[in-house]
Amino acid sequence: MRIRYRARQFWHALKSTPEPEDLDLARQVLSPAQMKLFLKLQPNEQVHSLRVFGQLYHQNPSDRDLLVAALLHDVGKTAYPLRTWERAWIVIAKAILPAKVTVWGQAEPHGWKRPFVVAEKHADWGAEMAARLGASATTVNLIRRHQQTIHLHNSPSPIAASREDQLLYRLQLLDNES
């Protein structure tokens, strides 16, 4: 099931460009500086973020922290843009050697380990970028944590989970589907 999802994601990445109306909606949520950063994402990354954003926007258009995080959650990848084959390599390596990928991801972003470092560290880089551009503390934390495993069921009830954890759960759910 996961392989089919990744294959579909790979195919969409090859032919994706953002729709002008989606970009217009993003401009309504992001500051001009944040929008400039968003536009540095590769077109397929923009489409992915816009897809996550659009679903969240239709659920609750007033939750600005979550909407900005949806648009900017992958902007750390702009520090070291990946080629399509590098993305495929990450997926394959994670499936075969997940512990090694984690170790490789702690290196410097150079040479053959660069894609793994980007995969591992882009959330922290993106959070720092968003913070410099005035994103709220909640948005920054959502971006920083968007790849962390979260289990709301560990809380006595989903309602008892913190607001940030509830938002993170929603972001991750759609990020993993899109």
Task: Describe this protein's structure.
The structure is a single chain. The protein is mainly α and 178 residues long. The chain has one domain (2-177). The protein is built from ten helices and no strands. The chain has helices spanning 2-15, 20-29, 32-38, 43-59, 64-72, 84-96, 98-104, 114-132, 137-145, 163-177. α1 runs antiparallel to α6 and α4 (43-59) runs antiparallel to α5. The protein is globular, with a radius of gyration of 16 Å.
What's the topology here?
Layout: H1 2-15, H2 20-29, H3 32-38, H4 43-59, H5 64-72, H6 84-96, H7 98-104, H8 114-132, H9 137-145, H10 163-177
Helix pairs in contact: 1-6, 4-5, 4-10, 5-9, 6-7, 8-9, 9-10
Record keyword descriptors for this entry.
67% helix, 0% strand, 10 helices, globular, 178 residues
Secondary-structure-based class equals: mainly alpha
Strand content: under 5%
Shape: globular
Q: Span between N and C termini? A: 14 Å
Number of strands: 0
Mean pLDDT: 90
